[in-house]
Batch of 2 targets.
Target 1
Amino acid sequence: DTAVSQTPKYLVTQMGNDKSIKCEQNLGHDTMYWYKQDSKKFLKIMFSYNNKELIINETVPNRFSPKSPDKAHLNLHINSLELGDSAVYFCASSARLAGVTDTQYFGPGTRLTVL
Amino acid sequence: AQSVTQLGSHVSVSEGALVLLRCNYSSSVPPYLFWYVQYPNQGLQLLLKYTSAATLVKGINGFEAEFKKSETSFHLTKPSAHMSDAAEYFCAVSEGQGAQKLVFGQGTRLTINP
């Protein structure tokens, strides 16, 4: 009965490769997010989708491309991986209640290591 | 733009002692404020949230936080620390209405001494 799930949990890859991280939520939420947590534990939002529409796009290299096939899924594709992309990536989702975005619920994270 | 400052990247208390984790925010509009906890190698779990209702907010695991507008603070407290409280704690403020765009503090690692 996992609420927000991510695959894979760990991802180790070489520089220059292309990789994807998948996220699924079974909470019926219509907004999903991707966050990056760096080695100092700092968390920063990258993207947000509402009903498959991109609504937040922070200053992220265009090597990162989110894709939302439906409102329960938000995948993150990364091209030409660089050492600096090593981090933990968290997916989150939230509902809208009375027109206001409610609490964000986070997945377990995907630890990406670029060698 | 909104921001959050957590005073103290590392707090250490004895088991049974008071836990106080400090959070100050900057916001030009009435904020929504959150505390999340991250246990080792896990995702973030919501402890509690303030959404312009009662200023004293009670959360899970015996934690509570008080919103003080005059001090722009939202400190997290627990009367008696337990070993299981050892974790990383994050304060966050939302930009705009609701929790759509969370801005996180740098986190405070809480260590509990036996």
Target 2
Amino acid sequence: DVKVTQSSRYLVKRTGEKVFLECVQDMDHENMFWYRQDPGLGLRLIYFSYDVKMKEKGDIPEGYSVSREKKERFSLILESASTNQTSMYLCASTLSRGRRAFFGQGTRLTVV
Amino acid sequence: GQSLEQPSEVTAVEGAIVQINCTYQTSGFYGLSWYQQHDGGAPTFLSYNGLDGLEETGRFSSFLSRSDSYGYLLLQELQMKDSASYFCAVKSSGSARQLTFGSGTQLTVLP
């Protein structure tokens, strides 16, 4: 089975800190995605990547950046964490023409 | 851009049939998929429709009408364990293959 692993399950950071969320997949998928999930808002796409060093903005990219230096790893960066970035962050991957996305277990980030 | 609409909540009793609708707007449609998410868990894939018609997988079926930009998930013989959030998601065409989710439908199955 495909495995998508997020580096932390729970994370607490202070306002203004630079935060790195890491995601690794083991099935050679071309596409990788970062979402945030908030109650009543579903999964909102932050950024996605369809190849190494390639990235595209999703619906809510403000305050975030991403890095994809290797095919299996996709990092989400909060340049200066703010309390409104407290959320559940989900990473997913798919084949380029794949029908299904595989998700990591999520990182619950709290910014205090 | 992409947008999807689905009901926020649905309630049904064990053994019943429930349909969760999804309408979408997208620039470049590739396929519609459905995911299930239990509280505290990650979304898991249920089904995918790339062409018009019905796809059946056990108790779950999914339907797509590309001309109407509409799809639904049909859950039969409901069980308590089906209580979860259900999301429709649109995959866009083009090189980027963006995957956009709806806001989710909370299904509650009552005994």
